[in-house]
Design goal:
about 30% helix, 10 helices, alpha/beta
Length: about 300
């Protein structure tokens, strides 16, 4: 199964962001809470794809007044659900070979948990978890405590996109890079990763990153910049963006989708390709984006 087959499975793309927002927020949604798993716990046990994980988090940091945000300090409900779905053997991305043993995946806004990295890394070639530096202490601790046999947790090094966080190990399954959507230079990413531009990213993952209107444009621009790295080398193998989020504010969601839709062709993941916890009425949604031809994000 090739990219064309994958897109055929997704059905029609999103044509009207306002209509998409109306359809989604007209659903009867099971939960209207903020979406924490447990905002008060300092650690929790979570099972994903048959793997028992012990995840540390920081309720104190979440409630702090740190400039630049604190939402990455705790685990959000969509993350283990997304990890369960993306790692399933029946997942459309593996069945279509978009994800395979040689794939490179980059996660935006990974937070402290590392849940998607821990559960997905052993099935692909390389996983780069990115976020702001404040999450790194707990993120690295979670990666180390829960890492799979045969895969280590490395870290990237660099200048404009990443500062030193230990020696980079290119053979490691999981690496950590500091990536700030508002200030990092994405064009430096291949150098930071130690790869050729044409080998950069197959899939970009973002779980519950859209919650603040002020971050929408930097987030969308970062997604587009990453996708442009690969598209400049091969239009036949574009980078795919998988954006999963909880449905909270219709205004924020619609603003994100309008901005994303300008630069990306967008599909909503249909229910027959999702697990129960992510289907219509769950309060969560997954969209797929492919950068439009000739797009300039700046």
């Amino acid at each position: 199964m090739a990219l064309g087959d994958l897109l055929s499975s997704l059905g029609e793309d999103v044509n009207d962001p306002e209509e998409e927002s109306f359809l989604l927020f007209s659903q009867k949604i099971l939960s209207c809470d903020l979406g924490f798993v447990d905002a008060k716990a300092t650690s929790m046990e979570i099972t994903v794809s048959g793997r028992d994980l012990n995840i540390r988090q920081s309720p104190t940091l979440l409630l702090s007044n740190r400039k630049g945000g604190t939402t990455g300090a705790v685990v959000w409900k969509i993350t283990p659900l997304f990890a369960q779905w993306i790692t399933s053997h029946s997942n459309i991305f593996f069945r279509s070979s978009i994800l395979n043993k040689s794939s490179i995946v980059l996660e935006l806004g990974s937070g402290v948990s590392g849940i998607v990295a821990i559960t997905l890394a052993h099935r692909i070639g390389r996983y780069i978890a990115t976020d702001q530096e404040y999450v790194f202490r707990l993120l690295k601790a979670n990666l180390e405590e829960n890492r799979l046999k045969g895969s280590g947790s490395g870290s990237g090094s660099g200048s404009s996109i990443a500062k030193h966080h230990g020696k980079a190990h290119l053979k490691s399954k999981i690496e950590v890079l500091a990536l700030d959507w508002e200030s990092s230079l994405v064009s430096s990413l291949p150098t930071m990763m130690g790869t050729e531009v044409s080998q950069v990213i197959d899939v970009v993952i973002a779980c519950d990153c859209i919650y603040n209107e002020s971050l929408i444009n930097p987030f969308v621009r970062t997604c587009a910049d990453i996708c442009q790295l690969a598209n400049a080398c091969s239009a036949e193998k574009p980078t795919l963006c998988i954006v999963a989020q909880q449905l909270r504010s219709d205004m924020v969601f619609e603003a994100w989708l309008k901005a994303f839709h300008k630069l990306f062709k967008v599909w909503r993941m249909p229910d027959d390709l999702l697990i129960d916890g992510l289907k219509e009425g769950s309060g969560f949604v997954v969209h797929i984006g492919i950068l439009r031809t000739g797009t300039n994000s700046h």
